[in-house]
Specification:
Strand order of the largest sheet: 1-2-10-7-8-9
CATH topology of the largest domain: Rossmann fold
Structural class: alpha/beta
Strand content: 15-25%
Number of helices: 20
Helix content: 40-55%
Number of strands: 18
CATH architecture of the largest domain: 3-Layer(aba) Sandwich
Largest sheet: 6 strands, mixed
Length: 508
């Protein structure tokens, strides 16, 4: 399996348009982690992503007849830009189908490289299906973003460059995984040339299609995927990539949103560049690997795969980075509703920086506060603070790992329900497109009363919604069927303590 890719990779025609990107030593990360950490800077490609390699290699190998008919692709960003630039360089007509939720900056970038764009559907899957349909109708060649040997070979040149740039021992290379084209190409080359080097895939914990496929020993389709790291939000690993990597990669690590945001900050601190969430994914996995295995004095390489991030998303990234570094704790604390109790509470916090403090009068006996405080980053520090507060009679609930608290509740504190509403609460991933809210409300058809609604836009292709509805529990299945039909990702949050304490009117 590996041998058949070596010649493909060596002959790959990527350097007509792609750059050989540097392998940069990360001094701050290396010192902090106790290992030699390097970043493979694919964010420095002309389209700010490695995707250009595979797209150009595939298109450059087309026959004259195929070139004359033009190429078509489906993508929400990086692959689209790679196909558009490749086609422009080779004088080929390109048509790109993009979801309607694609940020305007990415659509304009693709159009600026001479490609025609069609906006269709709210998700990649819908855009992909339509692009396949158009390819048949127009007799154009479909350029797959990852499930194609020529695309995989183009991405494999990243591995070839790494081994040329770092001739000494490499303990592990960490690779972001979406559809699997990049990790398949790197695995094929590195494991053939240096089989002792570990190849470790990294996925978001809410979009781990390779991780689940390896556990099942066959490809699986995830019911839904998280969209924060949209560049790797793929429901099923590619067939050809899975065939390449299943017997050769050493491990898959999953990371959460906070850990990805912390890795974006780490990359900025060392390089002054801003990675997109998928671009920082590999580094987040590298850090987790060091933490879990206590690795030291090793040479570790992370692929910084892209930098196509919207400026509006930086606010959200900054909010979550401190939690991802374990340097902010979010606590729900019960404080006696008597004069001087706040002062006593603040004295217990000592010299810690208070990052936020939310409170609203609700009960004559107890005050429930939502507080953020700085931390040294160690688990012992958190345990010490919680124990100190509890010893003084304060009830404490750790909210640091509670996504509902971080996404919504911290912005809603004080919004207790004034009476018993018998509401059921859901968090939704909401598409960012004109008319999305109207379409959603129309689909509900006035069947249930909306008792709570909180929405956040953080510059991505989706927004985050917390919704409460007054409905009998038996009707929740009908509501969920409505969400399934709309294609919204959702989680019921009625029993989530963050909601119960700060929006539902319960007490600790």
């Amino acid at each position: 399996m590996l041998a058949k890719y070596i010649e493909r990779i060596l002959r790959a025609r990527v350097y007509d348009v792609a750059e050989e990107t540097p392998l940069d030593f990360a001094p701050n990360l290396s010192k902090r982690l106790g290992n030699a950490v390097y970043l493979k800077r694919e964010d420095l490609q002309p389209v700010f992503s490695f995707k250009l390699r595979g797209a150009y290699n595939k298109i450059a190998l087309l026959t004259e007849r195929e070139r004359a008919s033009g190429v078509i692709a489906a993508s929400a960003g990086n692959h689209a830009q790679g196909v558009a630039l490749s086609a422009q360089m080779l004088g080929i007509t390109a048509l790109i189908v993009m979801p309607r939720t694609t940020p305007e900056i990415k659509v304009n970038s693709v159009r600026g490289r001479g490609a025609e764009t069609i906006l269709h559907g709210d998700s990649y899957d819908e855009a992909y299906a339509y692009a396949r349909q158009l390819a048949e109708q127009k007799k154009m060649t479909f350029i797959h973003p990852y499930d194609d040997p020529d695309v995989i070979a183009g991405q494999g040149t990243v591995g070839m460059e790494i081994l040329r740039q770092k001739t000494g021992s490499i303990n592990a290379i960490f690779v972001p995984v979406g559809g699997g084209g990049l990790i398949a190409g790197i695995t094929a080359y590195v494991k053939f040339v240096r089989p002792e080097t570990k190849i470790i895939g990294v996925e978001p914990d809410d979009a781990d299609c390779l991780n689940q496929a390896l556990k099942a020993r066959s490809r699986v389709t995830l019911k839904q995927v998280g969209l924060f790291a949209d560049g790797v939000a793929v429901r099923q690993i590619g067939e050809e990539p899975f065939n390449v990597v299943r017997d050769y990669i050493d491990e898959v690590i999953t990371v959460n949103t906070d850990e990805i945001c912390a890795a974006i900050k780490d990359i900025f601190d060392d390089t002054r560049s801003v990675a997109e969430p998928a671009g920082a994914l590999a580094l987040a996995g590298l850090k987790k690997y060091v933490e879990v295995t206590e690795a030291s004095d090793q040479t570790l390489i992370a692929i910084e795969s892209g930098a196509n991030i919207n400026f509006d998303r930086l606010r959200y990234v900054a909010e979550r980075a401190q939690v991802g570094e374990h340097r902010e704790l979010l606590l729900a604390v019960n404080i006696p509703e008597i004069p001087g109790s706040f002062l006593n509470f603040c004295r217990l916090l000592g010299n810690r920086n208070v990052t936020e403090f939310n409170y609203r009068y609700f009960d004559a006996g107890q005050a429930q506060v939502f507080v953020g405080v700085s931390s040294s980053g160690s688990g012992a520090d958190k345990a010490e603070l919680v124990n100190q507060l509890q010893t003084q009679g304060f009830q404490v609930l750790d909210m640091t790992a509670n996504d509902l608290a971080k996404e919504h509740i911290r912005y809603m504190v004080g919004g207790h329900t004034p009476c018993q509403l018998d509401e059921i609460v859901y968090s939704l991933q909401f598409p960012e497109r004109p008319g999305a809210l109207l379409g959603f409300l129309s689909a509900l058809g006035g069947r249930w009363n909306i008792s709570l609604f909180h929405y956040r836009n953080h510059g991505a292709a989706f927004g985050l919604v917390l919704i409460g509805l007054q409905m009998p529990k038996a009707e929740s299945h009908a509501f969920e069927a409505c969400l399934d039909e709309l294609g919204f990702g959702y989680t019921e949050e009625t029993e989530n303590p963050a909601y119960a304490l700060f929006a539902g009117g319960n007490k600790m």
